[in-house]
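Our working data are protein records whose layout never changes between entries. The record below serves as our worked example for the rest of this section:
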Amino acid sequence: MREPAPATTPEPTAAGAWVPDILDGFEQRTLELGPDFEGEVVATLVRRRRDVPPPDDAGIDLLYVHGWTDYFFQTHLADFWEGLGVRFHALDLRKYGRSLRPHHTPGFVTSLRTYDEDVEAALTVIGHGAGGGTGRRLVLMGHSTGGLVLSLWAHHRPGRADALVLNSPWLEFQTRKVGRLVLEPSIRAQAAIAPRSNLVNVDLGFYARTISSRQDGVWDIDPAWRPDDGWRITPAWLAAIFSGHERVARGLSIDVPILVLLSARSTPPVRWTDEMTRTDTVLDVVGVAARVPQLGRLSTLARIEGALHDVTLSSPEVRDDVWFETERWFRAYVPPLPPAPAPAPEPRGWRRWFAGFRSA
C-alpha cells in the first residue's frame, strides 16, 4: 500500500484556520504556541476534511502523536479508526513535520513536559480542553517517543482521557537501565555546556530502508520531514528522554485502560539483515515490555509477530493482526456511548389539557 507523497513541502499556514493538507482528503490547522529561545513555535493538527460528516459516529475522538524524526502520514491508520466510528486527529509536535520551521533545531526540547502545551492546544480544538469536554470519549494514541510523551501526560492528568493506545512506546532506553546510568552523567554534563551540540549519529538508516518506498519499503515519506538517516540527537534532548524513562521506571499511575502494541522481536541495528523487515530495529522490545506493567492498573500487551517498529507500517498480513488486536481491545474497553434518549411524545387530546393544567 502506498501513501501519496507530497510534491513539495508546503508553506506554513495561518494559525486558527483549517486549510487543505498535503495528504489528499485531509486538512490541517496551525496551533500557535508560546515562543522559545529559538523564536516562533507552533504545532499542527491534522484531520479528515469535514465537508461531509462521517457516516458512523461512536461518540469517540482520538488524538495520535508521532515518534522521533517523524510526522503524520499514515492515512490508513485514520481509515482504521474511522471505520470504528472514531473521529481521528493527528498532531505534528513542535519542530517536527508540518510544524518545523527554518529557524528550528529539529525535534529539540529540554523537557518532555514542554509537549504538554502542544497536546493541550490540540485537545482544546478537538473539544477536550482542560476546562471541560463535549460529552464525547477521548482516546490517545502515541508511537515511540509520542508514546512516552502521552504516557507521562496521562499520568499527570487523571480523568482527562478514557483510553491510551501505545504503538511501540519508547518506555526504556535501548541499553536498559544500566546503560542509562552509565551514559546519563556525561550526557547531562554536555546538556549543561552545549545543549544543542550533536551527539554521534547511531542511526544507520536501516529502519528507513524497511519502510521508505525510495528503498525496500512501500511508504512514500517526505525526506525533508523524515530523513533516511534521521536527525542528529542533542544532549539536552537525550537528557529529557532519560528523565522520562526514569519516571516510567519508578512507576506511573495511569487511570485508564492501556493497549501496548509491540513487535515480538528486535534486531540490533548493527548491519543489514533480512530480519530487519519483520522485527523492531529501533527499540529493545524486551526492555520495553518489562515496563508495561508499571504504566497503570490495567494494561494489555499485544506482541505482534513480524511487526516493524511502527507496527502499523508492517506487511499487510501483519497489519491485519494489528487491526484485529486493536479492535478486540477497543470493543472491550472503549464501548461507544449509548444513543441519546428519544424525546417524550407530545401529549394529545385531553392528556395535553391535563398536562397544561398540572403545570399551571
